[in-house]
Amino acid sequence: MLAVLLLALALAAINPTGYLGGGGDGYHYLVAARCASEHGACLPVDHWWRRWPIVLPTGLSLRLLGEGQLALAAAPLAYALAALALLTDLVRRVAGARAGIIAGSTLALTPVFTSGMTELNIDMPELAFTLLAMGCAVRLMDDRRQCWAIAAGLAVGLAIQARPTALALLPLAGLTLLRPADRRFFLPLIGAAALPSMAEAAIYGIAAGDPLLPWRLSLGHTTIPSTELLPGVDPSHSPLFNPEYIGGWRRPLGIEVHWLIDGLLNFVLHPGVSITLLGGAALALLHPGWLRASGRAECVLRLFAAMAILWFGVLTYGLAVDPKPRMFLPVAATASLFFGILSVRLWPRYRSLTVVIGALILLKGLAAVHDRAGLWDQAAAAPRWIEQTPAPLFVEARTARFLALVPAVRALPLADRGQRHGRVLLIGERGCAAAATAAGFGDWRVERSWLQQRQPGGAIGWLRQRHLFVAPPPVYAMCVLSAGPAVSPRR
User: Fold this and answer.
1) What is the pLDDT of residues 371-380, one digit of tens each?
2) Greatest pairwise CA separation for the chain in angstroms
3) pLDDT at 431 (0 to 100)
């Protein structure tokens, strides 16, 4: 386990993502955590604020460490390491130490997991509690005591508190009804799963007079405008089992065949998870015995397979969530578990294939770590730019969220797309002209620009020059726009 945790820490340290903000969820968690830091706890104003498993620990970090990247990375990194430890230990107990190390390392190297380790998000808490629940369920298979059913239920309840998408775990409790000897575990498991939500309802009933307030906020998240929804999708309708929502999200890879399978295809083929998913699936197909064998490891494989299928199905077709890979980390953990267990099991017969898949996972993981987006340089340069730019200077709204940790940026007034005076500080992708157009300032002049584009050498650079396996590098521009006459951009 120690080897897996050290690998994860090394991957996090090579090129830490840190706080990104912008149009993502991180900014909302930051604002909620600031309130928690100042007041201990705050009534939520939206579904982001409701997610106390990330808001409260981050608020404590801000209180103890001050506002900075380290404070914001502490909670997600702790949850990520806990998730890796839980997966590694679970696999070790059922298939041996080598299988555990391979499973944990595979998840650590999966780009969608690695990128979230130091980024402020709810995905890591949800995954950690999910794997804790699965670990307790596996313990229950060996030690037939109700305390393990209660522990599994509490972990499920905490995962639901992190994000209601973890409701997808509840149908797994029905597995205890299949055998008469297991039915006594059903009510303790379900009851324990309900306890965190019941406690939350009591707290909000006292503090806000509305015990259902957090659930109203969660169910009302679809009324918040999203650029990821295609034009024409009516946000006033419920997303539950709604084909308009299921097919209305922008596809990350642009694959559009039919709304029933678009989400699956874009997820399985996404470079953030594809090698892990396909590697685990390939070994599962080569060893179909796991479907019917009665061994301890095979039972765990079937349990996790059921969890992954339920997770993807409930989220994609029941809740109609935006099918981004980060929403399906438990599925990636399942693929990692399959690869860990079956790579050891199939090593004598499929040694070459296992080595190839492992090498691809390693190469893609390291390449993704190198290419992680970050705005450390822009945050360091922004105060100097602000000091050197004549007033009045405004900041574009999304840029203000990108640079929310920079006091000099927080002091600037927000720009209005309709204004025709002053200058605007802007950060965007693909150069200043494209960024200005996307932000609604397409007719403004670029007065100052800085295009950040990393050009790595070594093996990564060699692969990129030949368009092999490695994606183009992220490109971020920082610009000062002016509504006045055109001038030559300077750095």
Assistant:
1) 777 788 889 9
2) 81
3) 86
Q: Quote the strand ranges of 202-279, DSSP E.
A: none
- Rg from Cα positions in the chain: 24
* Helix boundaries (H) for 110-170: 111-114, 123-142, 146-162
| Structure-token pair, residue 183 | 């039915």
Sequence-ordered alpha helix ranges (H) in 143-226? 146-162, 186-208, 213-219
Residue entry with tokens 């307790």: 136
Query: What does the block give as tokens for 227?
Result: 């650029």
What Å distances lie between residue 123 and 39, 189, 334, 457, CA to CA? 25, 23, 15, 32
* CA distances (Å), origin 352, targets 248, 344, 360, 392: 42, 12, 12, 64
Q: For tokens 């009933």, what's the residue?
A: 205
Of residues 230, 276, 238, the one with CA closest to residue 256: 230
Q: How far apart are CA 130 and CA 177, in angstroms?
A: 21
- Measured in residues, the chain has a length of 491
Query: How far is 347 from 339, CA to CA, in rounded Å?
Result: 11
Question: Does the pTM of the predicted model rise above 0.85?
Answer: yes
Reduced to 3 states, what is the DSSP secondary structure of residue 188? helix
In sequence order, the 6+-apart residues with CB closer than 8 A to the CB of 107 are 83, 84, 87, 113, 276, 332, 333, 336
Do 417 and 435 form a contact (C-beta atoms < 8 A)?
A: no
